[in-house]
Amino acid sequence: MLTNKCALVTGATSGIGLAIAEALARSGASLMINGLGDHAANHALVRGIANRHGVKVLLNEADLRDPLQIAAMITEARASLGSLDILVNNAGIQYVAPIEDFPIDKWNDILALNLSAAFHTIRLAVPGMKERGWGRIVNIGSAHALIASPFKSAYVAAKHGIAGLTKTVALELAQHGVTANTVCPGYVLTPLVEKQIPDTMQARNLSREAVVRDVLLAAQPTKRFVTVEEVADTVVFLCSDAARSITGTSISVDGGWTAQ
Ligand code: NAD
Q1: Which residues pair with 252 in a beta bridge?
Q2: Mutate to test the pocket of ligand 1, among 16, 60, 106, 197 (most ligand atoms within 8 A of CB)
Q3: Max Cα distance, the chain (Å)
Q4: Are 1 and 28 in contact (CB under 8 A)?
Q5: What is the residue-level pLDDT of the chain in tens, covering all 260 positions?
Q6: Which domains does the chain carry?
Q7: In a mutational test of the pocket of ligand 1, which residue from 190, 195, 228, 234 has the highest number of ligand atoms less than 8 Å from its CB?
Q8: How far is CA 44 from CA 29, 49, 55, 88, in A?
């Protein structure tokens, strides 16, 4: 379905991004996978996807808090893949603390990675998409792009921001064959969620079981975590020609959380 398309997925060495990379490769797209983590393990991931699906897969380990590294990554993607047709801004981090204790460096990092990085990748990818008259931009938001929870000021601010950025980009590109959408998952059990369990236990003085039951899944009516594959399949659909009229919207994959 996506044969002859070239994609960049940020934050794809783990969790949701890795599942998106796998699903795009299964659909025939060539890929650049960006992410941090252990270099040898990242190479093994890339080789695994390339071997399973017979597509070209490249690794890029740029730290996306840095606009210069983002620019180098986009240049490399274009040069090595030939074009950049699909851009999935997925890299994200979380930090949980009351507003009055929220560390300034965590605020800056979350805004840089979860919001500003998408501004930079989009502004650099758009000229090529416009030139070819085809493009798909999918930003991974969150239920927290639509509603708030306490103790997540930076994350909620960044995710609301990315929903706004997506709408603006969609309007600017509506007549160029390029769509831009935000996918808003509920809770998915990835390392990002694992990591916030201890902080939430501390912030709310709760046990691990109580955090999962009474905080994480409390508002998710299905009472189960969303799977990475469910998010990835939504992204692949948005990249298809069947979704060409879907632009500027936020699509919830949240087990009914934001329907309440
Ligand atoms: P994860 O921790 O499993 O993966 C995060 C990815 O981002 C990794 O590949 C990591 O290497 C990369 N990354 C981290 N810092 C980076 C940096 N400075 N530069 C480049 N890459 C960096 O997280 P996940 O749960 O898969 O989250 C992926 C996205 O989905 C995030 O944007 C997150 O906000 C969003 N999301 C997650 C959930 C959830 O419940 N897990 C829910 C809603 C939205």
Answers
A1: 184
A2: 16
A3: 54
A4: yes
A5: 899 999 999 999 999 999 999 999 999 999 999 999 999 999 999 999 999 999 999 999 999 999 999 999 999 999 999 999 999 999 999 999 999 999 999 999 999 999 999 999 999 999 999 999 999 999 999 999 999 999 999 999 999 999 999 999 999 999 999 999 999 999 999 988 898 799 889 989 999 999 999 988 999 999 999 999 999 999 999 999 999 999 999 999 999 999 99
A6: 6-186+227-254 (3.40.50.720)
A7: 190
A8: 19, 9, 15, 21
Q: How many CB atoms lie within 10 A of CB 79?
A: 8
Q: 161 in ligand 1 pocket by Cβ < 6 Å?
A: no
**Sign of the C-alpha dihedral, residues 117, 119, 121, 124?**
negative
From the CA of 177, how far away is ligand 1's center (Å)?
28
Which 3 state secondary structure label does DSSP give 180? strand
Residue 141 tokens, joined: 């938001």
Whether the model clears a pTM of 0.85, i.e. scores above it, the answer is yes
Which among 183, 153, 150 has a CA at the least distance from the CA of 251? 183
Q: How far is CA 108 from CA 66, 70, 80, 102, 147, in A?
A: 12, 17, 31, 11, 21
9 φ/ψ angles, rounded to the nearest 5 degrees: -120, 120
